[in-house]
Amino acid sequence: MLEVRGVSKSFAGRAVLTNVDLVVGDGEVVALLGASGSGKSTLLRLIAGLLTADSGDVVLDGVVVNTVPTHRRGVGLVFQDEQLFPHRTVAQNIEFGLRMHRVPVQVRAARVTELLTLIGLSGFGDRRVTDLSGGEAKRVALARTLAPSPRIVLLDEPLTGLDRDLHDQLATEVAALLRSTHTTALLVTHDRDEATVIADRVVDLSDL
Amino acid sequence: MQHASARSRRSQRPNQLPRWALVCLATPAVLLIGGFYLWPVVTLVLESVTTDSVRRALTDPVLRRIVWFTTWQAVLSTSLTVIIGLVPAWLLARYEFTGRRTVTTLVIVPFVLPTVVVGAAFLALLPDSLDQSVTAILLAHIFFNVAVVVRGVGGFWEQLPVDLVAAARTLGASPQRAFRDVTLPLLAPAIYASASVVFLLTFTSFGVVRLLGGPANSTVEVEIWQRATRLGDVGVAAVLSIGQLVLVGVAVLWFSRLQRRRRVAFGLRPTNQRRRPASGRERVLVLVTAVAIVVAVCAPLISLVERSLRTGTGHSLAAWQAVFFGAEPGSARPTGPPVDAFGSLTVSLRFSIIAAAISVVIGGSASLAIVALGRSGRLIDVGVMLPLGTSAVTIGFGLLITFDHSPVDWRSAPWLIPLGHALVATPLVVRTVLPVLRSVDPQLRSAAATLGASPMRAWRETDLRFAAPALATGAAFAMAISLGEFGATSFLTRQGRATLPIAIDQLLARPGAALHAQGYVLATVLAALTFAVVGVVELSRRSGASRA
């Protein structure tokens, strides 16, 4: 369970987030709606530990993690522009988090195969990520984040920049994927339709 | 009929420069490269590389030790330079802080300095116990070459998306792990490229090793000079020269193949991803690193100036007065022929102006010819670049043994040294001017033609007009190169015609604190002159950029 308690953040004197409270229950998928520049990405980065809040607490499973470094928080993040590692293959990208957690090789391989099947890209393991289409890259990015089974998955505008048909198809797929893996997730988007398709609950950032 | 064929021949190259003009443009470069580069290299091979000299070179245990030393010091210098260079590269690529521009400039400064000045600065900085040691050579090599890594790797690092590291961190990678598994592999092509440049520069290092190495630490370059000018063993020196030339050529080819294979194509962002240090720890880290860079660059230069002022009892301007006003320094007991310190300054200035003039005329006209000739200009392009892949020592050596007998006994000709300098500088003039000329839209010339300009006139009004600032930059670079040139000059120098680097080397090699102080005075002057020349270029470029 994720709790955000009274978090504020400002950049160079400009307040981006002021006293934000938010709760995401176990297995829940919450969508956070907000216009661009409203601090959605900043909130995700604060939760992931990539940024430090000026005040307030980030609480995971009842423990305040403000000072826990990113790599020990167990928070997954799907970046808006995927940020796949260009020097590694599809399989190596998905496997990365497992390697960091010292998962044995055989277990890793099995998990990669399972995830590739789950995202409908079986047999893509040896492809270079620079050769993937936009939709394929999004799927691989999601699989990479899910691989080490993080406590919560954060998705930063994961479907932006895709054409309409692909966008709608992927929205349904992501929704199904998060449900089937019982993933706790927090999605930020500016698209209300996308939010209602993927999430159990939609929250407006301006209401927080 | 004749009239028609003349017209059709003309219409294939409408509005182009006449052929005779192209020939005129290409001729100086062809003469320079053919007469003063290719011929000397061929002479080197034909006259001196005999079965006897090859056999002696291959069986000489001293040479084997020298080749081994040259190689391992180059490998070690390169590794250390890359590791140390990554620190300023990281700092400048990732952080925004007050004084960032100053640090950026400072990091480049050592690379601009003549090798003799770098050698003198470390002689001044290091305690006597480290003189003539490998440590001194390594430190000077790192100091000199870090700029290559900062430029090459830092420029790439700046464009590497910061979120790739963030992604690795969210997947459970510690900062160290993220650096090792993501940043480093992605920087690898840039690191290899910089490392290969540093390796070539340190493998063929001459000035630094001459000043800091002492008799025990001789590199191949120093040994060539030693054998050719001191021991009179021209044969073995020539074998070494040619061997090194071949080796460097093979290394360059190998490096460029390695790089092609290592290249990873992916989207870089030319956006500014720098940020101010966020946490207190980051602030301290940035501050400490920036201060360390400033100290590392300034310390050798400051001690250079300090040593020029130092006397047995304290500090004074005695050495400066001795150089500029000829006042006899008190305790000097000259051994060997006197060194005309002030004379070397005037000689260097004169030579640098001649060298700049030669290389601008030849490099400029060659660039124009290369562009105008299109595909067939490639040969000239490659030819002009040849001296760049050749060590200055080999160039000087070749000139020395080629032009030492009639009818081409030009050893005492006052233009031979500046010509050698021009040979080294011309490739850089071409590399400065060519991109500018290539960027000129040929439509401009067509526009001029439709307004009534003849091909010659149109070309003068467009190409030449655009090339002028680049030619000025090239001239300044050529001057700076000539001022600091040591390798080729070491072979061609004659009594009474020593340049600044030669005089610095002579003064620092003699016993006597007063002479050493004069050597440091000249090194300070040479550093200041080089800064002045390069600084003017940088300033004019900045003002040009802000006007555009």
Describe this structure in words.
The complex is a heterodimer of chains A (208) and B (548). Chain A has 208 residues and is of the alpha/beta class. Chain A contains six helices and nine strands. Chain A has helices spanning 40-48, 90-100, 105-118, 134-146, 164-180, 192-198; strands at residues 2-11, 14-24, 29-33, 55-60, 63-64, 75-78, 152-156, 185-189, 201-204. In chain A, a hairpin with a 2-residue loop joins strand 1 (2-11) and strand 2. In chain A, helix 2 (90-100) packs across helix 3 (105-118) and helix 2 runs parallel beside helix 4. Chain A starts with a strand and ends with a strand. Chain B has 548 residues and is mainly α. Chain B has helices spanning 2-12, 19-48, 51-59, 61-94, 100-112, 115-125, 134-159, 162-170, 175-203, 207-212, 220-230, 234-262, 280-309, 318-325, 341-373, 378-385, 392-402, 416-438, 442-450, 455-461, 463-484, 487-492, 500-509, 513-547. The model of chain B is unreliable at 1-12 and 329-333 (pLDDT under 50). At the A-B interface, strand 6 and helix 2 of A face helix 8 and helix 9 of B.
Could you state the oligomeric state of the chains shown?
Answer: heterodimer
Most extensive interface, chain pair and sizes: A-B, 30 and 25 residues
Proportion of strand residues of chain A: 25-35%
What string gives the helices and strands of chain A in order?
A: EEEHEEEHHHEHEHE
Kindly state the number of beta strands of chain B: 0
State the end-to-end CA separation of chain B.
Answer: 51 Å
- Tell me the number of strands of chain A: 9
Shape of chain A: globular
Order of helices and strands of chain B: HHHHHHHHHHHHHHHHHHHHHHHH
| Helical content of chain B (DSSP H or I, runs of 4+) | over 70%
Biggest sheet layout of chain A? 5 strands, parallel
Number of helices of chain B: 24
Radius of gyration of chain A: 17 Å
- The rounded Rg of chain B comes to 26 Å
Mean pLDDT over the residues of chain A:
92
Low-confidence stretches of chain B: 1-12, 329-333
In helices, the fraction of residues of chain A equals 25-40%
Beta fraction of chain B: under 5%
